[in-house]
Description:
disordered C terminus; TIM Barrel; globular; alpha/beta; metal-binding; three-stranded antiparallel sheet; Enolase-like, domain 1; binds magnesium ion; nine-stranded mixed sheet; magnesium ion binding
Amino acid sequence: MSRIVALETSDIRFPTSLSLDGSDAMNPDPDYSAAYVIVRTDAEDGIEGHAFVFTIGRGNDVQVAGIDALAGHLVGREVEPLLDDMGGVFRELIGDSQLRWLGPEKGVMHMAIGAVINALWDIKAKRAGLPLWQLLSRMTPEEIVDLVDFRYLTNALTRDDALAILRAAEPGRADRERELRATGYPGYTTSPGWLGYSDDKLERLAREAMADGFTQIKLKVGADLDDDIRRFRKAREVCGPDFPIAIDANQRWEVSEAIAWVNALAEFHPAWIEEPTSPDDVLGHAEIARGVAPIRVATGEHAQNRVVFKQLLQAEAIQVMQIDAVRVAGVNENIANLLLAAKFGIPVCPHAGGVGLCEAVQHLSMFDFVAVSGSREGRMIEYVDHLHEHFVVPTDIRGGSYTAPITPGNGMEMKSASRAEYAWTGEHRTEGVHV
Ligand SMILES: [Mg+2]
């Protein structure tokens, strides 16, 4: 038996605003940041659980405080009973009645719970000697549904529905795992499309993306329609008529504005319109979906929990679902999200980028392919070529696809030197800045 001895948190911020990497219509100057947690135990194996919540700068300290507020639940507890009942840990943490008042199940506290849950999964996977995707993919359907809190879902997805989905995928698991190891999981890239980039940079990066084998690129839109038309036309010239190009408005528009704006770009055949309006406006997304069809609507990076995803699917408001590894309460809630998508037959194309999001979310897509949806058809993981060098196991992109990780853990462990170098002190250091 071993015990949890500490939840060690830190505020880590990268000065990405200096280069306009990550700039979009709503977030002109993000500093990619991590509210980072290490769960330490007294086990002799020396294994630590690493995870983080991604933020874009100011407020990262608030997020760290949220994680700190969970220490009382975990420090001093025996590790093994927690790891043996991850569904129970999830329900315990989201069920803290006083902390729950701050949400419920949304925002800073919910994401803090996600960090702690993900850190425990890191320990569990490292102890098993498996990358997270493989650990999850080798659990039985019964073990997997025990991880999920079906509360508030049962009018759309019951435990029996979930079991049926997982059992249907069971026979092909071994074949798909082999296929995944051989060919990876498709990626698409947002690198060419940041709003702060010049047309020349857009053109160069779009060419590079195609040459690198990515299956799609994405452009940020929504600040100025004339600019969007010019940039989309440029991208179409570079990529040709058939290459998928998605657009992302980062919540910029009113509902009617979204419909008009997207239709004004329809001649360039957007592969999807992402985050057209408020992430909480389920019915607004449904109206937009009807108003821009056959252009698909995608959202999810700010969907605060499984209930919002349920409604988006029930309302036929999205045709592409974009889970995020750290927006909801960790691996457990994202398994619920993957099962919901499978139930409704909607492809999951995760949000990634930021710092460490690619490293983290690839495990969920790979698990989905092996054990849930059983398909990579129409599915791909976002990729942005920033800040990977700070991770112990950086993403390995080959021919535009994510190579299946083989290192044990959840992929979220940041190098200790990077954590030290970018520990927030109240101002950016300019030395060693990656611009
Ligand atoms: Mg986006």
